[in-house]
Amino acid sequence: MATCAYLVRIIVRPENEAVSDWMDWYSSECLPETLARIKATRGGLYRAYDTFELQTKTPLDGGETALHDMKLSQTIDFESPTDMVLLVMAQIQSIENPEDIFRLASPPVSGPHASAADIRLYKLIEDYDPQKLGHRRSPFVLNVQVQPADVDDYNTFYSGEHLHMLSRVPGYRRSQRYKFVTGQTKASLGAPQFMAVHEWDHLDALDGPELREADASVNTRRVFGSALKVNIRGFQNRAVYGDIQK
Question: How far apart are the first and last CA of the chain?
Fold first, then answer.
């Protein structure tokens, strides 16, 4: 069950009905067919989740957040962490034509199940699984999007230090790091260049000593403090598909 080379990331906001009703329809009728059309090996449906303590998470009202004495300039758009937003992440082996992926993966834009959506494609650059868990259902994920000032410094920091320090935080499972390939809309073309998907059993320890130690690192302060864009958001899993073990 190797991690696939590419990730399809879909952010969806229902337009005409309650999120819970739309999610019930989408997860049972639309999403399984969508994943089959794009030949996804596995996928998950998540709902935005903001009920956790983390100083650096993207604020609901945009603006800045503080990391010690350093300010993080957050990106903000309709995927902000409200319970009106859903996330789909699907792993695929190849991308022949991005426009085909966008067309096949797009949720309906009209009718009773109309929605607004943003679809982005990413290429896997690192799969970090220190516990050898493989692909199992993860109750929570953190999406950490960063546009670093120095790409080489960012990659060295993440692989050489940051992931190891995250692995010491209670509840941590594993991470995948991706590089942005392209987006469906003009707005999404300006997405941060890198995205980490951190999987968690729970988010209860994100204000604990282990993560505080990671955030206090000189390298953390340098890399995140100089970043041009930062976006940190939480999501709770609602369904899994494909070969993900439940």
Answer: 14
Is the Cβ–Cβ distance between 148 and 236 less than 8 Å?
A: no
Mode of pairing for the β-strands spanning 140-147 and 42-49 = unpaired
Measured in degrees and rounded to the nearest 5, phi and psi for residue 43 equal -165, 165
pTM above 0.85, yes or no: yes
DSSP state of 108: P
Nearest one of 180, 200, 198, 199 to 190, comparing CA atoms: 180
User: What single DSSP character describes residue 191?
Assistant: S
Q: For residue range 116-160, what is the model confidence (pLDDT) as tens digits?
A: 899 999 999 999 999 999 999 999 999 999 999 999 999 999 999
pLDDT number for residue 78: 52
| Residue bearing tokens 């993080």 | 72
What is the helix (H) or strand (E) element at residue 200, kind and residue range? strand 194-200
- Which residues, at least 6 apart from 232, have a Cβ–Cβ distance to it below 8 Å? 54, 56, 57, 58, 74, 142, 143, 144, 145
Judge contact between 183 and 98, C-beta under 8 A. Answer: no
- What would the DSSP string read from start to end of 153-165? HHHHHIIIIIHHH
Q: Which two tokens stand for residue 146?
A: 């960063």
Domains delineated in the chain: 6-240 (3.30.70.100)
Q: Greater confidence, 9 or 185?
A: 9
Task: Give the Å distances, CA to CA, from 151 to 67, 86, 128, 156.
Answer: 20, 29, 19, 9
